[in-house]
Amino acid sequence: MMTRLVAPSMLSADFANLSCDIEMVNKSQADWFHLDIMDGVFVPNISFGFPIVERVKSLATKPLDVHLMIVDPDRYLERFRDAGADWLTVHYEACPHLNRTLSQIKALGMKAGVSVNPHTPVENLIDILEYADMVLIMSVNPGFGGQSFISNSISRIERLRKLIDSKGLSTLIEVDGGVGPGNAKQLYEAGANVLVAGSAVFKTDNPFDAIERIKNA
Fold it and tell me: Which residues are a divalent metal cation-binding (predicted)?
């Protein structure tokens, strides 16, 4: 059976009670913490920066999966490593020298991910898959939480899974955007390994149950 991981998105957490939500994820069946870094330039929103990443790292008992939705991410790779990132994902659309960026992330001791926006064909990644530990498929247009899942994301996951398998690689597929207990099974069956869920976890009465249902869909 393929790897099935759940990474709650801290963008949807309660920042007035952040330590409580971090403790919930620590105690839950979740596998990673997902942290979205937005700069207001690459995406039309601003989230949080190094102090929050460092704070989560100081309390987390699970790896930090940091997703950079920013222009010129190369400037900050080392800073995010120092802040506590275990996995660091950059956008295909933001990196003119992508294999160099992914290689640098790995040289800094982190796992390297590459993300593609909904309009970017997954086939564009064929020549850099061997440099990536993970590919993150955005199933909404990045920038805001709580958006509806874009339905053609399923076929994109299936096509990417075939590409990865045809090359004999062990690259993980992560999916972020509109993910919840209702579509988790379909996403795993399409070939996804890691599901990022924000609103579906933190905006429910029972986050523990939501995480368990996503993981065991």
Answer: 34, 36, 67, 176
The domain locations on the chain are 5-215
When pLDDT is cut at 50, 70 and 90, the band that residue 145 belongs to is low
pLDDT-derived band at 148 (thresholds 50, 70, 90) equals confident
Q: Residue 34 forms beta bridges with which residues?
A: 9, 65
34 is in an annotated binding site: yes
At the fourth CATH level, which superfamily is domain 5-215? Answer: Aldolase class I (3.20.20.70)
SS3 assignment, position 210: helix
Catalytic residue among 21, 31, 65, 176: 176
Report the sign of the C-alpha dihedral through residues 177, 183, 186, 191, in that order.
positive
Catalytically annotated residue among 21, 31, 36, 39: 36
Residue 144 has pLDDT above 90, yes or no: no
